[in-house]
Amino acid sequence: MWEPGGVLTIAPDRVAVWPAALPVEALHGIGPRQATVLREHGIHAVGLSVAVPAATAQRLLGGKAGRLAADRARGIDPRPVVARALPASTSVRCTLDQHTLDGAAVRAALLGTRLRGRGQAARALNLTLTIAGDTSWEKTRRLKEPSAHDDDLRTLAYQLMAAGLQRGRLTGLVLKGEHLADVGHVAQQVSLDDARESRWVAEAAVDRIRDRFGPGIIGPAAIHRRAS
Predict the structure, then answer these.
(1) Alpha-helical runs (H) found in the chain
(2) Consecutive 10-residue runs of the chain (228 residues): their mean pLDDT?
(3) Using CA atoms, how far apart are residues 148 and 181, in angstroms rounded to an integer?
(4) Are 197 and 188 in contact (CB under 8 A)?
(5) Is the CB of residue 117 less than 8 Å from the CB of residue 142?
(6) CB 156, CB 203: distance < 8 Å
(7) Using DSSP, how many helices (H) and how many strands (E) does the chain show?
C-alpha cells in the first residue's frame, strides 16, 4: 500500500499486469457515468477493459473518451510528466492538553521536518489558537530570514503563542509556514554561534534517522512525553 499523495513506480514489465485487478473507475478519466456503462457491458475491472477493442470502447464511451480509456488501460499515456510547483504554505495542527507550550514545540519541530524534506523555507509563521468556547485567535509574524530550522520556528511560535495565552484555555493550535521559498534561492547567513551550528548538525542527523527508520523514531522530548 502506498501513502496518499505519494508516487508509486511500476516497472515497465508490470504496466499491463499491475492494474488488471483494479476497478474500471480507477482509470484516469473514467467517471461514474462511464464506469456504469462499462459495468453494464460486463467490464468491471481494468484487466477486462484491455480485451475490449478500441472501436468498441469508442462506441460505448464516445470517440475521444473511448480512445483514452483503451490507451490508458494498456498503460499508454504519451503526455510528458510535468513537476508540480511546491505549495506556498503548509501547516501542522494538534489538540492541546495542559502542555500548551509543549504543543508549540512539537508543532514547530514537525513543521520544520516537513519543510526541510521538501527543500523549502518559511518566510513567516501564522498561529491560530482554538480557545474553549469555540472561539479562535490568529496572528502572523515574519521570520528575520527564511528558515526551516526547528530553533527558529519554535522561537517565533513561542513569541506568537505568548500573545495568545491570555485569551483563555487553549484547546488546539494550527501552525502554518507561509510565503515558502525554495532553499536554493535563499541566502544562507554565516552563523558565528557555535551552539547554533551544532544544533543544525544534530538536526540534519535527526532528519537522516527519520528518513531511514520512520518519522516517529526520534524527536523532541515533548513528543515522547505526550505519547507516554
Answers:
(1) 32-40, 46-50, 54-61, 63-73, 100-118, 150-164, 194-213, 221-227
(2) 60 76 81 86 85 85 84 81 78 70 70 87 90 84 91 88 71 88 72 76 84 73 53
(3) 10
(4) no
(5) no
(6) no
(7) 8, 5
What is the DSSP pairing of strand 120-131 with strand 90-95? unpaired
Query: Among positive and negative, which fits the CA dihedral 208, 213, 214, 216?
Result: negative
Give this prediction's pTM. Answer: 0.55
Write down the residue that cell numbers 527519520 correspond to: 210
Taking CA atoms, 208 is separated from 59, 78, 84, 199, 203, in Å, by 54, 36, 25, 14, 9
Residue of 63, 165, 54, 184 lying closest to 118 (CA atoms): 184
- The C-alpha atoms of residue 34 and residue 30 are separated, in whole angstroms, by 6
Provide the grid cell at 66. 473511448
What is the dihedral angle through the alpha carbons of 106, 184, 210, 114, rounded to the nearest 10 degrees? 40
